[in-house]
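Two records follow; treat each independently.
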Amino acid sequence: MEEKEISQAVIGRLPRYFRYLGELKDEGVERISSQDLSELMKVTASQIRQDFNNFGGFGQQGYGYNVEYLYDEIGKILGLNRRHNFIIVGAGNLGRALGNYMNFERRGFIFKGMFDRDPELVGKCVRGVEIMPMEKLNSFVRENDIDIAVLTIPKAGAEAAAEQLVQNGIKAIWNFAHVDLNVPEGIQVENVHLSDSLMKLSYNIDRYENEQAGK
């Protein structure tokens, strides 16, 4: 049977469902209705049901959703039921901040290595992980089953770094460099442009203030 194509909009909402369900689980909540989940997440109950129906529904008429079961199933859909080893390329402020974020391990993302071209940074440690020179990148990726690379380097070096990573077996790139990468089909890329988020925030501030002024 051909696998159903799931829209990126639905996939984009899954991590948020996972996060809210995890909080409910930690609070000891055993079940929840789509309506209650709707009020909590500010997403319509109809949207929640439509999203979950893409994967089989998960709920029971008159019962709602078993929180722990739904949390586990969404985790499996997101691939969080297995471990992902990742490295960070770029040991500047952003790279070190990401390396120090301990919640990655809770989700199965294991921080294995960090690389930089700056000899003043090489040899230092971020949460017990030594910063290595770029010359060691190829062998490290191949020998340590690394499937995700985080790029936190300037735009100028991002394309070359991405090509090097792909050649050594990287399956996915979390890209913080301000450039859209050109990678072969099958390599997954998630672009994170921080300034874009700030500009969106700026737009929403202006829109809200204009609406208030017009009242």
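The next record belongs to a different protein.
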Amino acid sequence: MEMVLSDVKKNGVYHVKQLHALGDLHRHLEDMGFVPGEAITVVSRIGGNLIVNIKGSRVALSAELAKNIVV
């Protein structure tokens, strides 16, 4: 079953499977570390928006952006 990052629970550890974004958005997500196989830990969820740890950095993502990341 395919699950996107915007649907996951807090404190879970997930791995990037693929990105559904195209063009500049796809490149932007990759530049932030969202590449296949990379581990992501959800630190907090606030109104659908997420703060995640990826590659040793904390990254804030809107719910819209998180829907493009398949885990």
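Discussion point: Strands lie at 13-15, 18-19, 39-46, 49-54, 57-61, 69-70. How would you locate this feature using only the token line?
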